[in-house]
Description:
Blueprint: E1 2-5, E2 22-25, E3 30-34, E4 80-82, E5 116-125, E6 133-138, E7 145-149, E8 152-157, E9 164-167, E10 176-185, E11 203-208, E12 211-224, E13 230-241, E14 247-256, E15 262-264, E16 271-273, E17 277-288, E18 301-309, E19 312-321, E20 326-329, E21 333-336, E22 339-340, E23 343-348, H1 361-372, E24 378-381, H2 388-397, E25 400-404, H3 412-425, E26 431-438, H4 447-463, E27 469-473, E28 485-489, H5 496-502, E29 507-514, H6 548-557, E30 562-568, H7 600-609, E31 615-618, E32 630-637, E33 641-646, E34 649-655, E35 662-667, E36 672-679, E37 682-690, E38 697-702, E39 706-707, E40 714-722, E41 735-741, E42 744-750, E43 769-773, E44 778-785, E45 790-798, E46 801-810
Parallel strand pairs: 23-24, 23-30, 24-25, 25-26, 26-27, 27-28, 28-29, 29-30, 39-46
Antiparallel strand pairs: 1-12, 2-11, 3-4, 3-5, 5-10, 6-9, 6-11, 7-8, 7-10, 12-13, 13-17, 14-15, 14-16, 14-18, 18-19, 20-21, 21-22, 31-32, 32-35, 33-34, 33-36, 36-37, 38-40, 40-44, 41-43, 41-45, 42-44, 45-46
Amino acid sequence: MKRIAFPLLLLSLTAFCLSASERTLFNDGWMFAFGNASDPAKDFGCGTEYFNYLTKANSIHNEGPYSPKFDQGKWDAEWKPVTLPHDWVVDLPFAPEASHSHGYKTVGYKYPETSVGWYRKTFEVPAEDFGKHFTLQFDGIFRDARIWVNGFYLGSEPSGYATQVYDISEYLNYGGENVVAVRADATLEEGWFYEGAGIYRNVWLDKSDPLHVAPFGTFVYADMDYPYDEITVNVETTVDNKGNAPAEFKVRNHLVGPDGKKTEMPESDVMKLSGKESGTSKATVALADPALWDIESPAMYEVVTEIVKDGKVVDTKVTKTGFRDIKFDADKGFFLNGRNVKIKGVNMHQDHAGVGAAIPDAMQAYRLKELKKYGVNGYRSSHNPMSPAMLEACDTLGILVLEENRLTGVNDYHIGQLKRMIERDRNHPSVVVWSVGNEEWGTEWNDYGSRISESMREYCHRLDPTRPMSMATSGGPTVVVPVDVAGYNYVLQNPIEEHRKNYPDRKALGTEETTGCGARGVYYDDHANGFMKAINRSPSGPDSLYNAIERGWKFYDERPWLGGLFYWTGFDYRGESNPMVYPATNSQFGVLDYCGFPKDEAFYLKSWWTDEPVLHIFPHWNLAGHEGEEVDVWAYSNMDEVELFVNGKSQGRQAMPKNGHLSWKTIYQPGKVKAVGYKNGKKAMETVVETTGMPAKIELTTDRNAIMADGRDVAVATVKVLDKKGRFVPDANVELILNAAGPVKILGVGNGDPTFKAVERPVDGVGKTFTVRTFNGLAQVLLQSEGNQGVGTLTVSSGSIPSNSISINAD
């Protein structure tokens, strides 16, 4: 019997804590100001007091932002209201001398005035809540965070990716005003990619009885074997008694299926905990005919856990769950619910145009849905633990996740980070592999690597015996010897066939493989201005880089013993613009750009990763200045054959190789290119690309026509430039004027330009008017609810081009 985990989902916008427990999203009402990373006297005197916050628990001398008596007017600093999630780096300018890896934003050790941010929030706690237990939970603060409540120092967390939970019960002013303060210091970089800065994930205030389910204290797993007619569900519950007196209680659980059917689980025996003690109970039940979580049908259950004391329910937690069976096989690859499945994944960082790292929860689902259009079923969280909101989206949308720890090592700090990730996320059905590191060059080739990997493997198994662990190597052999599933970064760096010969029992997958992409809609290199055409179309360059996306998929698809691969990357991301340098500010290797607009390579994946008919030809035919030059026209398609016509003349009919592409050499002259696709010898579809006229129309669409009127939900609007015949103009770069009306505001904008250096969001706090320029015909506007019901509108205009509007219902 196998123990199979499924999700603990406590961190969405829904308040899952019911009855005697309450969870409040703590994102509103914050104030923000810059501190100073190099001069404490300019950092609101933090730590310079006669008795500072490390000297006394709450000194009467404390006067910094953490103190209830903080005098804001005493300091020469501008405090402004912000709503979380918040990334202050989005608003900073770019500079060529700033960090290349972090997108040339003016943050880091060179910029002490903009590398420390302070957050402050006041809140009230009713007098009748005295005796309750309160915790503050921060899902992510970048980085080196220090936290205070009412002047009491709670603790610190160096990592920008670790969830932090603090007990604040004894520090609260019941029946009065309280203040929480956060200092974040982004002077040091934790990754080699854009990371933003600030409280960029959700914050929660939890209220419960002193006797309650511990944070992340529910571990649900199932014993299940094919054909899964009946499975055994196990629920382990850790209970904290944060009171001072002993407590006697029982734990009871029940399941609620997707159809609403309730399955009771046996109640625990009476448990006894002394004050400040924790204990664990276990319940087991047989579940007949379970609805399985799968990538096609991600069925979700709920586990309702109740703590019963003196016959009364004193604490309730609801955990959304899903059941699935996973297995990696050394000869046959990856299995999901007894079915062989190839992981078709992408690597993803966690920033987006207009908002940086502070991605609203609704946009996590948007990003995944865009990837799924092209057949993506896997997500590698490179190179850090994911946002809980993104994991929830993966659960509900059926995405297979490889979740990665930020730092490799075996001491308390390293294992503490690993423990927090696994205990928080070990019940998400989407997570199928834990990764303990990526390209640790200092250990890949020596005994350090095998020793560290082996130790971290045992910690992973102790924390979660239901999943395998992995580590990604850039070529070094030793680091992946002890792991459960070897991760190979790039077939050109790893002698994978040799590894197969030397380690025939090894289970493996591709953790990184290059897409070979460049800037969207760019077909001629312009390195001086930061633009790169797709390496896939660069035969004059190194042979190893030509047609990279095709080479990678063919390699993994032709080897059944490999579980699949994760391309680098799904979306473009800010920073690490290799091989480009300033003025390029973004990576260009995403199959989708920074906004999620598809590049040509997305259609290669769609051709071979989906069953939907595809016939995509490129380049576009607005190649002014290249008349008379030879052009290589490519087709990404899953048709049996494709015939190409250029200005009415056939260029030939070719058979499409499996997992391949087709190309024709022709001479560019303005006009029309037509491709005809054939299936079983018959015409099945046709695609036309024409030289267009000048921009004449604006087309507006949104990913949704209704959002929640909660002050948080977001609709994503796409602006597309058309000519007078209604044809997309693929080289249109026009300035747009944006106006929002009704209960929506402009949260941020983007256009997918990898050299984008304009202001990305309104800084007036109102967000009703703004501007953005299209890049190669497209722009994106993020519209956020203001919290009121009604009909919101976005109106877009551009010079003499007629304006256009679209409506969004806020309910």
